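Tokens for chain A. Residues wanted.
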């Protein structure tokens, strides 16, 4: 054997790749830290993240990991921790949000902020969305530091303040005001699930890694007409006009059906037996939910009075391929013969790019998942809801929504619900996948 070849062979076989952490101990620590973290109720509104940021800051400081706090407005604190790599290229940002949506304690089986353990689950607001993932990310940095893993790439950790209100004081603010600090080539964020039944109809274990998300279009429809006595119907009743307008709109959105998308083609190729449920239907087409209807005179509305105004709010979620302006023009045409009906756009997200998934980081996700679950299918897909990732994708970051715990559809559905929970036995494997994915990427040449 040639001397150089021998040296290369010797190095590749015998050089220790760095001992792996004690994942059992780390999994237990993840559970304990997640419980402590959930008990700090960082409900949005008002998304006061001073305490959660102090909690994470202490965690990193104890391990000697550089950490910095950024207060975007009173009470809204963001946190950035940073592990340096030897190269300036390929920076990886782990993104999580510290705020959670409110919880109606009277509807919960346990106190939503007690982090109770019950029937093999950790219950609590933020158990899935997304305090546990934040802890997996933090412990990944900590384990890399403790094991003195020789990093080629920088690994950063951003805990943001108000994702649940769109990120104006959180990720968006960091991107606008501290881009140099958070800039990255890649980001790992929420939006992915490992699941045997949410995405597949035949029980195969699918890890959906989101590379895109749908656009939000919120609008209000107002119909006006002639008021009068309910005993004598009028031809221009505002309620009739609103009903007709909404019926047409609903029919238009439904008629459009599945949207042509190369991302979905790839998803169907990797997961041919796609499940049919509200989640999978929502990621294949534009959707409309009518979220409020308001009309009538008096409170409660008088039964015998025809009102002169009726309103509805609409939550459209549009595929990345659907262009906003042509969509609005189509609605205008649809209602062109309807008098007294108008649509006002309340909020529309900027375009939502699709992240390339033929990348070293995506390959490392696939590898780390298969190391844990050899039969699992890893596929790019999109999520029907918005995340902090969109702001990063607009800056050219390849952002992936990665969830490394295996969750049944019913557990995924507990997100934002009155019984949000995560299986306790998932902490160790979920953390192992997270760590291996990040370590594998950050140490590769
Ligand atoms: Zn979330």
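Reply:
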């Amino acid at each position: 054997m040639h001397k150089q070849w021998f040296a290369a062979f010797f190095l590749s076989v015998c050089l220790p790749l760095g001992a792996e952490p004690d994942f059992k101990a780390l999994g237990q620590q993840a559970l304990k830290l997640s419980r402590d973290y959930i008990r700090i109720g960082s409900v949005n509104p008002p998304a006061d993240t001073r305490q959660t940021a102090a909690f994470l800051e202490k965690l990193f400081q104890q391990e000697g990991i550089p950490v910095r706090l950024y207060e975007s407005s009173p009470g809204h604190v963001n946190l950035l921790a940073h592990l340096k790599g030897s190269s300036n290229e390929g920076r990886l940002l782990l993104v999580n949000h510290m705020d959670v949506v409110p919880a109606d304690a009277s509807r919960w089986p346990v106190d939503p902020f007690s982090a109770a353990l019950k029937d093999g689950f950790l219950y609590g607001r933020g158990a899935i969305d997304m305090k546990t993932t934040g802890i997996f990310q933090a412990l990944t940095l900590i384990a890399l530091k403790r094991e003195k893993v020789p990093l080629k790439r920088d690994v950063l950790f951003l805990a943001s303040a108000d994702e649940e209100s769109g990120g104006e004081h959180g990720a968006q603010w960091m991107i606008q005001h501290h881009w140099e600090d958070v800039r990255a080539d890649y980001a790992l964020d929420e939006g992915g699930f490992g699941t045997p039944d949410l995405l597949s109809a035949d029980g195969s274990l699918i890890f959906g890694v989101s590379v895109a998300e749908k656009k939000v279009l919120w609008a209000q429809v107002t119909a006006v007409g002639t008021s009068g006595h309910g005993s004598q119907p009028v031809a221009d009743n505002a309620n009739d006009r609103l009903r007709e307008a909404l019926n047409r709109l609903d029919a238009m959105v439904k008629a459009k059906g599945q949207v042509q998308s190369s991302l979905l083609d790839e998803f169907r190729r990797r997961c041919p037996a796609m499940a049919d449920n509200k989640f999978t239907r929502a990621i294949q087409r534009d959707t409309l939910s009518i979220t409020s209807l308001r009309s009538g005179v008096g409170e409660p509305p008088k039964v015998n009075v025809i009102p002169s105004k009726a309103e509805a709010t609409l939550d459209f979620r549009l595929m990345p391929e659907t262009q906003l302006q042509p969509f609005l023009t189509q609605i205008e045409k649809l209602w062109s013969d309807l008098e007294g009906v108008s649509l006002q756009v309340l909020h529309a997200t900027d375009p939502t790019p699709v992240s390339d998934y033929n990348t070293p980081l995506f390959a490392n996700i696939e590898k780390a998942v298969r190391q844990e679950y050899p039969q699992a299918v890893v596929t790019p897909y999109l999520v029907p809801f918005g995340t902090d990732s969109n702001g990063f994708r607009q800056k050219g970051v390849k952002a992936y929504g990665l969830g490394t715990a295996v969750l049944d559809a019913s557990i995924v559905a507990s997100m934002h619900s009155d019984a949000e929970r995560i299986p306790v036995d998932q902490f160790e494997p979920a953390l192992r996948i997270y760590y291996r994915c990040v370590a594998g990427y950050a140490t590769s040449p």
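Residues 230 and 305 are 5 Å apart (CA to CA). The chain has two domains: 19-211+353-443, 215-348.
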